[in-house]
Amino acid sequence: MNNQEQNMKFMQIAMKHLPEGKKILDDKGIELNMDDLQPMLELLLNVMSEAYELGKEESMENKS
Question: Which of 13, 19, 30, 56 could hold 25 in an S-S bridge, CB 3.0 to 4.6 Å?
Fold first, then answer.
């Protein structure tokens, strides 16, 4: 899987959970639109990518 495909899959996961995160913010009185959420989505994608790479490295170490 190339980086672009991986990012698309991560974005699908993030979008699936976005309504839950938006509800938490709304319940706290924090109003954000999609433009406001974009930097947080990018941060989340970076975290997911690093976690994926860590899991991949650990998987390779366990196979050795």
Answer: 30
